Amino acid sequence: MSLPECLLVLVAGAFAGTINTVVGSGTLVTFPVLLAVGYSPVVANVSNTLGLVPGSVSGAIGYREELAGQRTRVLTLGSASVLGGIVGAILLLSLPPDAFEAIVPVLIALALILVILQPRLSRMLAERRERVRPHGGPLLWTGVFGTGIYGGYFGAAQGVILLALTGIAIPEDLQRLNALKNVLAALVNGVAAVIFIFFASVAWLPAVLLAVGSAAGGQLGAKVGRRLSPPVLRGLIVVVGIAAIVQLLT
């Protein structure tokens, strides 16, 4: 990569780390950037997963105060995330590259729909909070497991899905659920990254640049996330996601 391309990847990592901590969907920024600088979809996805792990961990650390009292919840749902992430990573490595290239535009489109519908989902969650179980239950565990499979395979909007599921199933403050989401996403990305290191082709330069950028972005997102404008972020994510779909289909 050229120096301008390296700077682009670094900035994309910082932006993704911020978005992932606040909402999710950072992959909709970094994945298209890696495609644009010349990497194949599978290599871009693998390298992106590795690069965003430090951002997920950084965001979780930044939200540590909101994690207080959620140890049992983290352990229970964390097991679903770890198992799901392993399955998703194995699927990515087992299925042919053509399958990934065919599936990813659909996954991005679904992720964009979730991003667009997030305000409505949030209203629905608020209406249901008096009628749900305090700690989720088997259905939530299954949903988190399925989200882990999705995240291990291709993680765009994983955070949005986790916030929707936990918000429906757990009567809890949204910021505390966001802290939980950051931990679960970190677990999925972490176990997938370990598998990719040993069994996949990794583009290490962009992975390292993304790691540095996303770690900084995770801290930024934790500090100023409540001040960011959700409509602006949502609009930018949609634009970038559409660009990614167009690039994959051309």
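the 2nd protein, sequnce then structure:
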Amino acid sequence: MAALKAEFPGARYLVFGWGARDYYMARNPGLGDILRALTPGPAVMLVIPLQMPPEAFFGASNVVAMHVSPDGVARLSEHLWNYLSTDKERFPRRIGTGPYPQSIFYAATGTYNLGHTCNTWTAEALHVSGLPVSAAGVVFANQVLDQLRPPLEPAHAHTQNAADPVLEFWAQPLR
């Protein structure tokens, strides 16, 4: 992911999204964009660089912070990299400016379809990082968020090392 770090030198955080290219890149998605997203098609990755914590940018109610081991962060980084299409020099292929300041859309691997949505992709990424999240049957964001919420009565108390990295998951509501 060093190539992305070089693209966003002032960023303290990088937020990743993956979705149906036509829908995700549309400035004002209409019915046609929605219908095209219902059929299998190319995907795109959005990278949003932030200088402030995601909670400050998106609002605390839209962010869930999860502690992840350094190995989990390394696996997640590799997973994200594998979803980026690269050129012959192995640099991510930019295909447009994103909707947020300094955000960029990159060509992505994989096919977006109803069985592999942005929420399925997110669940897979969280699972790869070592979090107890399953992508099985996930279509909607709440199906991922429900897996991240702590149970009402936890069976085991878990103490996190303050040095453990924190993975911040941002849930973007459907437009």
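The chain has one domain: 2-170. Helices lie at 2-7, 21-25, 31-37, 54-58, 70-82, 118-128, 141-148.
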